[in-house]
Amino acid sequence: MALIVSMIEAVTGFLWGDLVKIPLPGGSSLGLSLMVILLIPAGIYYTIRTKFLPIRLFSEMVAVILEKPQGKEKGDLKKGKLSGLQTLIVSTATRVGMGNLVGVVAAISAGGAGAVFWMWITALIGSSTAFVEATLAQLHKRKDPLYGGFRGGPAYYIHDFFFKKAPGEELNGEIPKKKNIIAILFALSGLICWGGISQVIGNSVSSAFENAFSVKPIISTAILVLLAAVIVLRKHATARVLDVIVPVMAGLYFALTVFVILRNITSLPTVFQRIFSEAFGLRQMVAGGFGAVVMNGVKRGLFSNEAGSGSAPCAAAAADTDHPAKIGLFQAMGVFIDTIVICSCTAFIMLLVPEEQIVNLQGMDILQTAMAYHFGSFGKIFIAIILWLFSFSTFLGILFYARSNISYIFGDNWASQTGYKIFALIMLFVGGLAQYTVVWDMGDMGVGLMTIFNLIVMYPLSREALAALKDYEERLKEERKEKN
């Protein structure tokens, strides 16, 4: 067991630790992890290739979310068919989690207010990566004989790439007997990652409820696991529940942040001044902390929005749509919602508190103290509830992701699907009773390996996503001409 733990820690350190250090003025250094080295250039490359899609097509990203679904785009949960908006909700459920709360606080604590700016930059370039991988998932999706509707994701477009399959081939949904080793490794990495995250979720929820309500971990964990089991062990309950939870939790958190901002509106210019001055500040360079500012913001942005990791495409493939690029735009907006909106909410809640109130505090203590400053005793209770919603929806979302990966490895059978769900529920229960630091590393290792296997194929296949984008924009031009 000790050997396995050491291996997991070593691999995680290689993936997320400082692989390269660049000296900076003032005695500081810029530490670049393998994930940063892989994902940031990928984001810049796809941003250029899509002609700055997040900025150029932002209005269209908003339009596809707001438009009323027509025909097959409506989705039919009874038949397992999801609309583009429903798949966005599923992916948002997994993106919006602990990272948006404690992760953002940790980034600001270590890197200062300037880390927020670098989170924003990471999200902007990550949106283009999210567009490409989601569009590829749509182009290479298969019919799902178990759940109905469609399934897919990186395991499937990796398979198609190595076996020279054109988009849309084998749409009947049958899993080929001859499989690709890279696709299998991607699928296994995802299952390992989501198993580790399940334990982290259990521990986060039980700790928050013990701090806020003095509820014993065994009680809060048992309720969490029973409720999760009722939902995930039913065929189509997951998407239905997320349809309700995600808009409510994100809306509540956003509304409270707006209230905090309006209540402290005179302090807002000072907060923005801190963010931008510390992002490029000479003070940080002289003090030797500029590298920490940049890297804490970048790493938190990458980990939070998941663009390039191949997670969200597992949901994107399930959408029933009239054009694959439309789902790419949905997922590009998902990155914006996660990092620019939700992560910024946490940042503003924290930065609008006098510094002396939170000095020498760490992690959840900072956030709970900040909420208590803004809302009194209600703040501590609210954070416990919102953390429960964030964590619970993440658990439901990762089990939705797992479906297609399980099918690729084990074929279409309910035994393997149910077996993984039971495994995840056990991990959720164990995590609620005790904290094991290795499971954080297990999650980090899984998402890191997924990213490597995903990016290997994304570069050569990206031409398909770019062609889909070009076709979509040409259709938009024709539609506008007809209206005029």
Automatic annotation (TrEMBL):
* Short name of one Pfam family: Na_Ala_symp
UniProt KW keywords: Cell membrane, Membrane, Symport, Transmembrane, Transmembrane helix, Transport
> Recorded GO terms, molecular function?
amino acid:sodium symporter activity
Q: Membrane topology for this entry?
A: Multi-pass membrane protein
| Principal location listed in the UniProt entry | membrane
Ranges annotated as spanning the membrane = 30-48, 88-111, 181-201, 213-232, 244-262, 335-353, 381-402, 422-439, 445-462
Question: What InterPro entries does the database record attribute to this sequence?
Answer: Na/Ala_symport (IPR001463)
By its UniProt entry, which PROSITE patterns does this protein fall under?
A: NA_ALANINE_SYMP
Q: Name one GO cellular component term.
A: plasma membrane
For whether the record's keyword set contains Transport, the answer is yes
From the Swiss-Prot or TrEMBL record, state where the protein is found.
Cell membrane
Similarity comment text for this entry: Belongs to the alanine or glycine:cation symporter (AGCS) (TC 2.A.25) family.
Protein's recorded name: Amino acid carrier protein
Provide the species name. Oribacterium sinus F0268
